[in-house]
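User: quick one - fold this with 2'-deoxycytidine-5'-monophosphate bound?
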Amino acid sequence: MPIFVGMSSSNNIIVAIDGYSSTGKSTLAKALAQSLDYGYIDTGAMYRATTLFLLRHNMDFNDMGAIQKALFAIQIQFRPGKDGNRTFLNGEDVEDEIRTMPVSAKVSEVAAVPLVRRAMVAQQQAMAKERGFVMDGRDIGTVVFKDAELKLFLTADPVVRLKRRYDELIKRGIEITEEAVLANLEHRDHIDSTREDSPLRKASDAIELDNTNLTPEQQLEIAYKYAMDRIEQTV
Ligand code: DC
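Assistant: Sure. C-alpha coordinates for the protein plus 2'-deoxycytidine-5'-monophosphate:
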Protein backbone atom coordinates (compact mmCIF):
# COMPACT_ATOMS: atom_id res chain seq x y z
CA MET A 1 0.00 0.00 0.00
CA PRO A 2 1.17 3.54 -0.64
CA ILE A 3 2.50 5.58 2.25
CA PHE A 4 0.18 8.56 2.53
CA VAL A 5 1.91 11.83 3.14
CA GLY A 6 0.87 15.48 3.15
CA MET A 7 2.68 17.52 0.52
CA SER A 8 4.42 20.82 0.95
CA SER A 9 2.85 23.54 -1.17
CA SER A 10 5.99 24.17 -3.24
CA ASN A 11 5.53 21.15 -5.47
CA ASN A 12 1.77 20.81 -5.47
CA ILE A 13 0.37 19.51 -8.72
CA ILE A 14 -3.01 19.26 -10.43
CA VAL A 15 -4.32 15.76 -11.08
CA ALA A 16 -6.96 15.75 -13.86
CA ILE A 17 -9.22 12.69 -14.02
CA ASP A 18 -11.52 12.37 -17.02
CA GLY A 19 -13.65 9.61 -18.50
CA TYR A 20 -17.16 8.46 -19.37
CA SER A 21 -19.94 8.26 -16.77
CA SER A 22 -19.54 5.66 -14.02
CA THR A 23 -15.95 4.74 -14.76
CA GLY A 24 -15.09 5.31 -11.10
CA LYS A 25 -13.65 8.80 -11.49
CA SER A 26 -15.01 10.25 -8.28
CA THR A 27 -14.11 7.17 -6.21
CA LEU A 28 -10.50 7.45 -7.37
CA ALA A 29 -10.37 11.25 -7.21
CA LYS A 30 -11.66 11.33 -3.63
CA ALA A 31 -9.28 8.63 -2.41
CA LEU A 32 -6.29 10.12 -4.23
CA ALA A 33 -6.99 13.60 -2.86
CA GLN A 34 -7.15 12.17 0.64
CA SER A 35 -3.90 10.22 0.18
CA LEU A 36 -2.06 13.27 -1.12
CA ASP A 37 -3.71 15.63 1.36
CA TYR A 38 -5.05 17.60 -1.61
CA GLY A 39 -8.40 19.22 -2.26
CA TYR A 40 -10.98 17.42 -4.38
CA ILE A 41 -13.31 19.07 -6.88
CA ASP A 42 -16.17 17.09 -8.41
CA THR A 43 -16.92 19.20 -11.49
CA GLY A 44 -19.89 16.99 -12.46
CA ALA A 45 -21.58 18.11 -9.23
CA MET A 46 -21.32 21.73 -10.44
CA TYR A 47 -23.12 20.92 -13.71
CA ARG A 48 -25.67 18.94 -11.72
CA ALA A 49 -26.32 21.80 -9.27
CA THR A 50 -26.76 24.21 -12.20
CA THR A 51 -29.20 21.77 -13.82
CA LEU A 52 -31.18 21.50 -10.58
CA PHE A 53 -31.48 25.29 -10.40
CA LEU A 54 -32.72 25.51 -14.01
CA LEU A 55 -35.22 22.67 -13.46
CA ARG A 56 -36.57 24.19 -10.25
CA HIS A 57 -37.19 27.46 -12.08
CA ASN A 58 -38.70 25.72 -15.11
CA MET A 59 -36.17 27.39 -17.33
CA ASP A 60 -35.85 26.81 -21.05
CA PHE A 61 -32.38 25.43 -21.80
CA ASN A 62 -32.41 27.27 -25.15
CA ASP A 63 -33.07 30.70 -23.64
CA MET A 64 -29.54 32.08 -23.32
CA GLY A 65 -30.68 35.34 -21.70
CA ALA A 66 -32.41 33.43 -18.92
CA ILE A 67 -29.46 31.08 -18.51
CA GLN A 68 -27.08 34.02 -18.23
CA LYS A 69 -29.25 35.53 -15.49
CA ALA A 70 -29.44 32.18 -13.73
CA LEU A 71 -25.66 31.85 -13.80
CA PHE A 72 -25.35 35.17 -11.97
CA ALA A 73 -27.83 33.93 -9.37
CA ILE A 74 -26.15 30.58 -8.74
CA GLN A 75 -23.53 30.08 -6.10
CA ILE A 76 -22.03 26.60 -5.82
CA GLN A 77 -19.85 25.56 -2.91
CA PHE A 78 -18.36 22.35 -1.58
CA ARG A 79 -18.39 21.88 2.17
CA PRO A 80 -16.96 18.92 4.09
CA GLY A 81 -19.54 16.36 5.26
CA LYS A 82 -19.45 13.01 7.06
CA ASP A 83 -18.65 11.05 3.87
CA GLY A 84 -16.64 13.66 1.99
CA ASN A 85 -17.58 16.94 0.33
CA ARG A 86 -21.19 17.94 -0.04
CA THR A 87 -22.49 20.25 -2.75
CA PHE A 88 -24.33 23.42 -1.76
CA LEU A 89 -26.47 25.50 -4.10
CA ASN A 90 -27.02 29.02 -2.79
CA GLY A 91 -26.43 27.79 0.75
CA GLU A 92 -28.68 24.70 0.50
CA ASP A 93 -27.27 21.18 0.74
CA VAL A 94 -28.29 19.59 -2.58
CA GLU A 95 -25.83 16.68 -2.55
CA ASP A 96 -28.57 14.03 -2.61
CA GLU A 97 -30.98 15.78 -4.95
CA ILE A 98 -28.37 16.37 -7.68
CA ARG A 99 -27.84 12.58 -7.96
CA THR A 100 -31.53 11.83 -8.66
CA MET A 101 -32.83 10.79 -12.09
CA PRO A 102 -34.59 14.05 -13.02
CA VAL A 103 -31.23 15.82 -12.77
CA SER A 104 -29.25 12.97 -14.40
CA ALA A 105 -31.71 12.96 -17.30
CA LYS A 106 -31.06 16.64 -18.12
CA VAL A 107 -27.52 17.39 -16.97
CA SER A 108 -25.80 16.54 -20.26
CA GLU A 109 -28.08 18.95 -22.14
CA VAL A 110 -27.22 21.72 -19.72
CA ALA A 111 -23.51 20.84 -19.79
CA ALA A 112 -23.52 21.20 -23.57
CA VAL A 113 -24.47 24.91 -23.36
CA PRO A 114 -21.31 26.99 -24.00
CA LEU A 115 -22.40 29.79 -21.60
CA VAL A 116 -22.73 27.26 -18.80
CA ARG A 117 -19.39 25.66 -19.60
CA ARG A 118 -17.59 29.00 -19.64
CA ALA A 119 -18.94 29.89 -16.19
CA MET A 120 -18.12 26.47 -14.69
CA VAL A 121 -14.62 26.32 -16.19
CA ALA A 122 -13.77 29.81 -14.86
CA GLN A 123 -14.89 28.78 -11.35
CA GLN A 124 -12.97 25.51 -11.51
CA GLN A 125 -9.77 27.27 -12.59
CA ALA A 126 -10.16 29.82 -9.79
CA MET A 127 -10.82 27.14 -7.14
CA ALA A 128 -7.64 25.22 -7.95
CA LYS A 129 -5.32 28.01 -8.99
CA GLU A 130 -2.94 27.33 -6.09
CA ARG A 131 -2.68 23.72 -7.34
CA GLY A 132 -2.77 20.82 -4.88
CA PHE A 133 -6.10 19.55 -6.24
CA VAL A 134 -7.55 16.43 -7.78
CA MET A 135 -10.34 17.35 -10.18
CA ASP A 136 -12.59 14.94 -12.05
CA GLY A 137 -14.91 15.50 -15.01
CA ARG A 138 -14.95 15.31 -18.80
CA ASP A 139 -12.77 18.21 -19.93
CA ILE A 140 -10.28 18.69 -17.11
CA GLY A 141 -7.20 17.52 -19.01
CA THR A 142 -8.30 19.02 -22.33
CA VAL A 143 -9.73 22.42 -21.29
CA VAL A 144 -9.82 23.31 -17.58
CA PHE A 145 -6.22 22.39 -16.72
CA LYS A 146 -4.48 21.63 -20.00
CA ASP A 147 -1.23 22.04 -18.04
CA ALA A 148 -2.15 19.49 -15.33
CA GLU A 149 0.99 17.63 -14.30
CA LEU A 150 -0.89 14.31 -14.22
CA LYS A 151 -3.82 13.43 -16.47
CA LEU A 152 -5.66 10.14 -16.08
CA PHE A 153 -8.35 8.91 -18.46
CA LEU A 154 -10.43 6.16 -16.87
CA THR A 155 -12.19 3.42 -18.80
CA ALA A 156 -14.15 0.35 -17.72
CA ASP A 157 -16.22 -2.36 -19.33
CA PRO A 158 -19.82 -1.13 -19.96
CA VAL A 159 -21.31 -4.01 -17.96
CA VAL A 160 -19.19 -3.10 -14.95
CA ARG A 161 -20.07 0.58 -15.33
CA LEU A 162 -23.78 -0.22 -15.39
CA LYS A 163 -23.52 -2.38 -12.29
CA ARG A 164 -21.55 0.30 -10.41
CA ARG A 165 -24.04 3.07 -11.18
CA TYR A 166 -27.05 0.83 -10.45
CA ASP A 167 -25.60 -0.29 -7.09
CA GLU A 168 -24.75 3.30 -6.20
CA LEU A 169 -28.30 4.52 -6.87
CA ILE A 170 -29.86 1.62 -4.95
CA LYS A 171 -27.53 2.35 -2.04
CA ARG A 172 -28.77 5.94 -2.08
CA GLY A 173 -32.33 4.58 -1.75
CA ILE A 174 -33.37 5.50 -5.30
CA GLU A 175 -35.86 3.10 -6.91
CA ILE A 176 -34.77 2.39 -10.45
CA THR A 177 -34.40 -0.43 -12.99
CA GLU A 178 -31.14 -1.49 -14.64
CA GLU A 179 -32.70 -0.64 -18.03
CA ALA A 180 -33.33 2.95 -16.97
CA VAL A 181 -29.78 3.31 -15.66
CA LEU A 182 -28.33 1.88 -18.89
CA ALA A 183 -30.45 4.22 -21.03
CA ASN A 184 -29.27 7.22 -19.01
CA LEU A 185 -25.59 6.21 -19.22
CA GLU A 186 -25.80 5.74 -23.00
CA HIS A 187 -27.68 9.01 -23.44
CA ARG A 188 -25.13 11.00 -21.41
CA ASP A 189 -22.09 9.34 -23.02
CA HIS A 190 -23.48 10.20 -26.43
CA ILE A 191 -24.18 13.87 -25.66
CA ASP A 192 -20.97 14.34 -23.63
CA SER A 193 -18.75 12.98 -26.41
CA THR A 194 -20.51 14.54 -29.42
CA ARG A 195 -21.31 18.06 -28.19
CA GLU A 196 -19.54 20.88 -30.05
CA ASP A 197 -18.12 22.66 -27.02
CA SER A 198 -15.31 20.71 -25.31
CA PRO A 199 -16.52 17.18 -25.98
CA LEU A 200 -15.20 14.36 -23.82
CA ARG A 201 -11.83 13.33 -25.25
CA LYS A 202 -8.74 11.66 -23.92
CA ALA A 203 -6.01 14.33 -23.82
CA SER A 204 -3.02 13.32 -25.94
CA ASP A 205 -0.81 13.33 -22.84
CA ALA A 206 -3.29 11.47 -20.58
CA ILE A 207 -2.58 8.01 -19.19
CA GLU A 208 -5.42 5.59 -19.86
CA LEU A 209 -6.37 3.44 -16.89
CA ASP A 210 -8.80 0.56 -17.46
CA ASN A 211 -10.16 -0.33 -14.03
CA THR A 212 -12.55 -3.12 -15.08
CA ASN A 213 -10.60 -5.69 -13.10
CA LEU A 214 -9.10 -3.45 -10.46
CA THR A 215 -10.32 -2.97 -6.92
CA PRO A 216 -10.55 0.67 -5.76
CA GLU A 217 -7.43 0.07 -3.65
CA GLN A 218 -5.43 -1.28 -6.60
CA GLN A 219 -6.52 1.62 -8.74
CA LEU A 220 -5.55 4.07 -6.02
CA GLU A 221 -2.14 2.47 -5.66
CA ILE A 222 -1.42 2.88 -9.38
CA ALA A 223 -2.63 6.48 -9.49
CA TYR A 224 -0.76 7.35 -6.30
CA LYS A 225 2.52 6.12 -7.79
CA TYR A 226 2.00 8.24 -10.90
CA ALA A 227 1.18 11.26 -8.74
CA MET A 228 4.27 10.82 -6.55
CA ASP A 229 6.45 10.54 -9.66
CA ARG A 230 5.04 13.80 -11.02
CA ILE A 231 5.35 15.54 -7.66
CA GLU A 232 9.01 14.54 -7.43
CA GLN A 233 9.60 15.94 -10.90
CA THR A 234 7.90 19.23 -9.98
CA VAL A 235 10.39 20.92 -7.68
O1 DC B 1 -19.53 13.20 -13.44
P1 DC B 1 -21.05 13.27 -13.47
O2 DC B 1 -21.69 12.04 -14.04
O3 DC B 1 -21.63 13.65 -12.16
O4 DC B 1 -21.35 14.49 -14.49
C1 DC B 1 -22.65 14.88 -14.79
C2 DC B 1 -22.70 15.43 -16.20
O5 DC B 1 -22.00 16.68 -16.27
C3 DC B 1 -22.10 14.53 -17.27
O6 DC B 1 -23.10 13.84 -17.95
C4 DC B 1 -21.37 15.46 -18.18
C5 DC B 1 -21.26 16.77 -17.47
N1 DC B 1 -19.88 17.16 -17.15
C6 DC B 1 -19.21 17.88 -18.11
O7 DC B 1 -19.71 18.11 -19.19
N2 DC B 1 -17.95 18.34 -17.84
C7 DC B 1 -17.38 18.09 -16.67
N3 DC B 1 -16.15 18.57 -16.41
C8 DC B 1 -18.05 17.31 -15.69
C9 DC B 1 -19.31 16.84 -15.99
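One thing worth noting: The beta strands are 14-19, 39-42, 76-81, 84-89, 92-93, 133-137, 150-155, 207-210.
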